[in-house]
Amino acid sequence: MNNILELLDVVIRDSFKGIKGYFKSRLIILGIVFVILSVGFVIIKAPMPLLIAFLIALLDIVPLLGAGLVMIPWGIISYFWGSQELGIGVFVLYFVLTILKQFIEPKVLGEQIGIRPLYTFIATVLGSLVFGPIGLILGPIIAIIINSIYRFRQNT
């Protein structure tokens, strides 16, 4: 019984640490996305680059919404009814952002919640497949709990 209480204490402590790390990682990623978008929007001469970069970065923090919700329609509209150059620039910037985020996100999240980036990526993907959009958050939390139990078993 004492061992179970000790395990429960470790799992709860690690879970709170992981949840805090998850939100910290989202803020770090928000900052990275803001910088990438700001530089990109200045280069392609988008109107109000810092404001638009900040708003898109805020939107990007919400799982499944992402930058594409704004950038894809903006790129299409710009290409066909505005400046083709701006439309192409928005698409290229969106492509670059998406590729960079695929590498950055698991690493930052893994460092903040204490799990290897590959496991974080797998937990996020499996979580979203099993639980839907909420699984993007639940997957890493479940991985934290499993990792906590594993480490506890190794130490006892």
Count of individual helical segments: 6
Q: Which radius of gyration do the C-alpha atoms yield?
A: 19 Å
What would you call the shape?
A: elongated
Strand content: under 5%
Query: Biggest β-sheet: count, sense, barrel?
Result: none
From the N-terminal CA to the C-terminal CA, the straight-line distance is 14 Å
Low-confidence runs (pLDDT<50, min 5 residues)?
A: none
Q: Could you report the average pLDDT, rounded to the nearest whole number?
A: 89
**Helical residue percent?**
over 70%
The SSE order reads: HHHHHH
Helix-and-strand structural type: mainly alpha
Give me the count of strands: 0
General description of the model:
The chain has 156 residues and is mainly α. Helix content is 86%, strand content 0%. It is built from six helices and no strands. The protein has helices at residues 2-43, 49-60, 68-81, 84-113, 117-131, 135-155. The mean pLDDT is 89.
List the topology elements.
Layout: H1 2-43, H2 49-60, H3 68-81, H4 84-113, H5 117-131, H6 135-155
Helix pairs in contact: 1-2, 1-4, 1-6, 3-4, 4-5, 5-6
Short description:
The protein has 156 residues and is mainly alpha-helical. The protein is 86% helix and 0% strand. It has helices at 2-43, 49-60, 68-81, 84-113, 117-131, 135-155.
